Amino acid sequence: MNENAAPEGAERLPEHPPRLDWAKLAPEAFKAMIRLDTAAGQGLEPTLLELVKIRASQINHCAYCLDMHSKDALAAGETAERIIQLHAWRESKHFYTAREAAAIELTEAITVLIDGFVPDEVYARAANEFDEEELARLVVAITTINAWNRFGISTRLVPGHYTPAG
Asked: CB within 8 A of 160, min separation 6: which ones?
């Protein structure tokens, strides 16, 4: 059965069209984002990075990025159960390590910025789990996925067609 198939006898709603192909129209900016994303992830565990990218994409409602990073996480060895629980990670902390929980919490704080800053206690928990270089890369990775989310949302990238590399 096709994983994107509608239930038997049901017809799926049509896809929305993308607004524009920003990567094609602004290729140097797209390439710069790719380089930034690659640089940010160096030295951090691939599955941790994917959890961070999924959580930010959930908060930002970026369907394209959710599709991409859920598939990339599965391809990197992440479990469906942990991906499913991520939206409610505070109630299901036992699915995650202290390091992952600190990264997810920092992702939420940087993504939402409710109080206009990242709370000291959130930053301290992350600093306790990551050395300074890892923490710097994590902050860049979180900032980068938020930028990717905004590109995806504003240009209405269409989810469902992404295939992980490899």
From this structure: 4, 15, 67
**Which CATH architecture fits 44-154?**
Up-down Bundle (1.20)
CA atoms within 13 A on the CB side of 91: 4
Give the lowest-confidence range in 6-10, 35-39, 120-124. 6-10
Measured CA to CA, the distance from residue 73 to residue 46 in angstroms comes to: 8
pTM, full prediction? 0.93
Each residue of 43-81: pLDDT tens digit? 999 999 999 999 999 999 999 999 999 999 999 999 999
3-state SS track over 35-102: HHHHHHHCCCCHHHHHHHHHHHHHHHCCHHHHHHHHHHHHHCCCCHHHHHHHHHCCCCHHHCCHHHHH
Domain locations along the chain: 44-154
